């Protein structure tokens, strides 16, 4: 099997590499969209999850929706109380989910980029390209992998010899359960590059940082850290790894849950959380969001209990982090009871800091009860959300 770059790389890709080398900058071919820097995919709680994914990655998610239409979308957005923002919730079910109603011995719920003509070249991995990915994930308490494969991340050829993934992050059932980094070379040889106990990853947010140079003798590194304190849970690097496939023109990343049904008795329904995927190429990098400008949003109940027909009020405060100066649009995404309205004053906090008020106006027709209001603030790709209580009491004589 020939592994020389010129034997594997098509003329169009070689031309791309030549232009990049001559200019010293990674730019896109004239037929493609203008070059752009890092692509960020982050949940915001307002735009439907599938729309957010397709807009950022130029590809629809691969889901088992066709086999389980009564459930609805298998990727949704939920508020994470620890992060105080919306995140992506990947829901997979042992029964009846499968692989897109095509394969029934496995289940697939993944997001990815494509290698087709409608995908910007910036999101494609050509031979010789260096790409960087950074993302967050949380495996739920009680997460159960099987002795067969359960991938949560793949690096995979788009075409050519694209059967087996090149790289996977794979939780595996054992004594103890482990997280494995697996490599399959262009000869089809599988190597477990490294593994670590899975338990430290359970129930905590983890930030992954991965850097790859696609080549027959490529470079690969990955670091997995706890998001809250930066503790390194796993790291691996290799400067001479076969990261290409014969007949391939594009390699791309995939994230989600892709698992075998060879041992369904070992599995359970899972909700794996992901958020803030960053994809960069060439000289661009995906720096940690913990080093970037951001904002903090809080609402304090001034009068969370109200009698039907009255109004509840909350003090809203926005403060900048690391020099944030953006405008933040405020909304109540969910939880407002029937026959009631939510009003922010102002509806947008400008300049990165300020205060305001949220008023929930009820009517005589508003049902009494306890409600949870999801308050959301959005500024570009940044968003923060939190939950505040509302108690509506029956009017006297009701």
The total number of structural domains is 2
CATH topology of the largest domain: Jelly Rolls
Distance between the termini: 82 Å
Treating each run of at least 4 consecutive H or I residues as one helix, how many helices?
A: 3
Low-confidence stretches: 1-35
How does CATH name the architecture of the largest domain? Sandwich
Helix and strand succession?
HHEHEEEEEEEEEEEEEEEEEEEEEE
Assembly type: single chain
Strand content: over 45%
Structural class of the helices, strands and pairings? mainly beta
Shape: globular
Q: Work out the helicity level.
A: under 10%
Tell me the major beta sheet: 8 strands, antiparallel
Mean pLDDT across all amino acids: 91
Radius of gyration: 24 Å
* CATH class categorisation of the largest domain: Mainly Beta
Tally of extended strands? 23
Record keyword descriptors for this entry:
398 residues; mainly beta; Jelly Rolls; Immunoglobulin-like; eight-stranded antiparallel sheet; six-stranded antiparallel sheet; 23 strands; globular
Structure description:
- The protein has 398 residues and is mainly beta.
- It folds into 2 domains: 5-291, Jelly Rolls (Sandwich); 294-393, Immunoglobulin-like, CATH 2.60.40.
- It has 3 helices and 23 strands.
- Strand 7 (167-172) and strand 8 form a beta hairpin.
- It starts with a helix and ends in a 5-residue tail after the last strand.
- The model is unreliable at 1-35 (pLDDT under 50).
């Amino acid at each position: 099997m020939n592994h020389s770059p010129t034997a594997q790389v098509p003329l169009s890709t070689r031309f791309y590499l030549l232009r990049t080398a001559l200019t010293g900058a990674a730019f896109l071919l004239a037929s493609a969209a203008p070059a752009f820097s890092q692509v960020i995919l982050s949940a915001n709680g307002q735009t439907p999850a599938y729309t957010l994914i397709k807009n950022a990655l130029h590809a629809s998610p691969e889901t088992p929706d066709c086999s389980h239409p009564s459930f609805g979308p298998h990727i949704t957005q939920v508020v994470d109380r620890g992060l105080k923002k919306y995140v992506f919730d990947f829901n997979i079910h042992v029964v009846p989910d499968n692989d897109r109603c095509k394969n029934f011995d496995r289940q697939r719920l993944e997001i990815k980029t494509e290698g087709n003509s409608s995908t910007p070249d910036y999101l494609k991995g050509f031979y010789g390209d260096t790409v960087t990915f950074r993302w967050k994930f949380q495996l739920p308490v009680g997460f159960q992998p099987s002795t067969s494969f359960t991938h949560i991340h793949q690096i995979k050829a788009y075409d050519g010899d694209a059967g087996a993934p090149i790289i996977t992050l794979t939780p595996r059932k054992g004594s103890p359960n482990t997280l494995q980094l697996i490599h399959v070379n262009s000869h089809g040889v599988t190597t477990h590059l490294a593994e670590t106990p899975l338990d430290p990853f359970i129930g905590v947010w983890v930030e992954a940082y991965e850097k790859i140079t696609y080549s027959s003798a490529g470079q690969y590194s990955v670091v997995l850290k706890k998001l809250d304190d930066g503790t390194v849970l796993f790291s691996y690097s290799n400067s001479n790894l076969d990261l290409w496939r014969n007949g391939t023109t594009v390699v791309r990343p995939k994230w989600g849950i892709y698992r075998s049904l060879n041992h369904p008795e070992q599995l359970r329904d899972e909700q794996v959380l992901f958020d803030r995927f960053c994809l960069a190429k060439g000289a661009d990098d995906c720096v940690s969001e913990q080093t970037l400008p951001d904002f903090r949003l809080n609402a304090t109940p001034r009068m969370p209990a109200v009698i039907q027909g009255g109004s509840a009020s909350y003090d809203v405060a926005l403060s900048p982090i690391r020099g944030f100066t953006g405008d933040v649009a405020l909304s109540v995404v969910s939880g407002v009871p029937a026959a009631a309205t939510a009003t922010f004053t102002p509806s947008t906090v400008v300049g990165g800091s300020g205060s305001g008020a949220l008023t929930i106006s009820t009517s005589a027709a508003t049902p009494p009860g306890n409600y949870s209001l999801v308050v959301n603030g959005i500024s570009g790709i940044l968003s923060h959300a939190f939950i505040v209580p509302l108690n509506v009491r029956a009017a006297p004589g009701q």
